[in-house]
């Protein structure tokens, strides 16, 4: 019952999919971290025990998120966003360094990663801004303001350094596109990514020649329509300038470990024992699972600790080895169903704020899901993005739980009944 005395009808399909993913995730964390020399649940230092505690605390978070009136998230979205930005800035002063990244606050024996909660805060702030009656997303001024809302947390996260978490903020282009942002922005984003990878593969000289040839071809192909030569020349110069900046970004902004991982994925280096060890072992583990897998807790690669970070970013390798192709497809289908369900419910929202937030949730989950699966299968570089609801870690689980259940609460506000 909500504060106005109305009963609330929650979307139990979304809740069921969430519970299924969390449960399957914990089962695989147990398999990846359980020590056979220790009696089950006898040590609170074991990752699967900690994860179980965090799952229990997630239930309390869900209760709090659902207990708040849906209007709370709209009314205080901007304040939540500002608090989130302050928490990210505070890391540069009070942050705890773990594995070379200053991304956590130390709270006694536990650590909190504010970037995991910043995604929900940014989604709220963006939804609030775009749904404002005075906002016109087709206006360049308002587009710039929306991009600033998205970019600020990403810019605070990159120097931690945590480029993987910053990359996720590209997901917010999709709700903007849904609300009227011109398709050209998405096209430019994909083109910039293609140009970035093309420059790394072909080199600056060849990619520059290719840009000039393409521009010349398009210009002469459209010559009957009298294309503007200056415009084509300016576009070519901008593209070539971007191509020349790629080497600087790659060599000065990226860390050596990131450069090595990109080179391995692009086929420019082979290093199965060094920086490419994780990906190589991950592929071996998944491939060894066959169609039906080796059975729960029976994975030789998993039990042999051949895949580093297997409880966190590489948890899907346990699924592939112990549950095989069939189990992997079940997990993938569950994620797809959850994302499609969120999009479906978002389209049914009466309030624009709810719809924008729903699209943001779906886009964030998709980016995490797509990049993580691509990462562990060797299709994408390793950039440290966890698998939602699966990967070990309290901050990640709580951040995704809050992100999802705020939408569940907003969605329920559409279905009040007395």
DSSP helix fraction: 55-70%
Uncertain regions spanning at least 5 consecutive residues: none
> What's the N-to-C terminus distance?
9 Å
Radius of gyration using CA atoms only:
23 Å
Task: Tell me the strand order in the biggest sheet.
Answer: 1-2-3
For the biggest sheet, the summary is: 3 strands, antiparallel
Backbone shape: globular
Describe the structure in your own words.
The protein is mainly alpha-helical. It folds into two domains: 12-181 and 262-413, no CATH class; 182-253, no CATH class. Helix content is 67%, strand content 3%. The chain contains 17 helices and three strands. Strands 1-2-3 form a three-stranded antiparallel β-sheet, with helices on one face. A hairpin with a 2-residue loop joins β2 (101-107) and β3. α9 packs across α11. The termini are close together.
Produce the secondary structure layout.
Blueprint lengths: L11 H22 L13 H21 L2 H6 L1 H18 L1 E3 L2 E7 L2 E3 L2 H17 L8 H18 L5 H5 L5 H6 L4 H20 L1 H18 L7 H25 L2 H10 L11 H12 L11 H4 L11 H33 L4 H25 L17 H19 L6
Antiparallel strand pairs: 1-2, 2-3
Key features of this structure:
single chain, 418 residues, mainly alpha, 2 domains, 17 helices, 67% helix, globular
């Amino acid at each position: 019952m909500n504060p106005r005395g109305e009963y609330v009808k929650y979307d139990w399909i979304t809740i069921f999919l969430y519970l299924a993913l969390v449960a399957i995730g914990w089962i695989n964390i147990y398999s990846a971290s359980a020590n056979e020399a220790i009696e089950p649940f006898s040590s609170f230092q074991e990752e699967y025990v900690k994860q179980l505690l965090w799952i229990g605390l997630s239930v309390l978070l869900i209760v709090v998120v659902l207990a708040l009136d849906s209007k709370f998230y709209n009314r205080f979205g901007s304040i939540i966003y500002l608090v989130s930005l302050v928490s990210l800035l505070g890391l540069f002063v009070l942050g705890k360094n773990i594995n070379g990244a200053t991304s956590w606050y130390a709270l006694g024996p536990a650590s909190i990663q504010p970037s995991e909660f910043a995604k929900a805060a940014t989604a709220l702030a963006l939804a609030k801004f775009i749904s404002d009656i005075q906002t016109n997303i087709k206006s360049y001024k308002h587009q710039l303001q929306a991009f600033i809302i998205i970019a600020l947390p990403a810019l605070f996260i990159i120097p931690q350094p945590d480029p993987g978490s910053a990359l996720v903020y590209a997901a917010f282009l999709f709700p903007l596109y849904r609300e009227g942002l011109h398709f050209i922005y998405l096209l430019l984003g994909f083109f910039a990514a293609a140009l970035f990878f093309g420059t790394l593969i072909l080199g600056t000289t060849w990619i520059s020649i290719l840009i000039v040839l393409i521009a010349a071809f398009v210009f002469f192909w459209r010559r009957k329509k009298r294309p503007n030569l200056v415009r084509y020349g300016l576009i070519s110069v901008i593209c070539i300038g971007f191509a020349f900046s790629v080497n600087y970004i790659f060599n000065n902004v990226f860390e050596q470990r990131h450069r090595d991982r990109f080179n391995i994925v692009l086929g420019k280096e082979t290093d199965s024992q060094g920086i490419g060890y994780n990906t190589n072992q991950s592929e071996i583990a998944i491939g060894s699972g066959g169609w039906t897998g080796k059975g729960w807790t029976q994975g030789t690669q998993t039990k042999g600790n051949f895949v580093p970070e297997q409880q966190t970013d590489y948890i899907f390798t346990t699924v592939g080895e112990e549950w095989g192709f069939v189990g992997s497809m079940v997990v993938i289908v569950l994620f797809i169903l959850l994302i499609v369900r969120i999009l479906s419910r978002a389209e049914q929202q009466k309030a624009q704020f709810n719809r924008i937030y729903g699209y943001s949730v779906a886009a964030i989950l998709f980016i995490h899901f797509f990049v993580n699966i691509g990462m562990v299968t060797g299709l994408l570089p390793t950039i440290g993005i966890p698998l939602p609801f699966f990967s070990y870690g309290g901050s990640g689980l709580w951040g995704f739980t809050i992100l999802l259940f705020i939408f569940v609460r907003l969605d329920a506000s559409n279905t009040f009944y007395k």
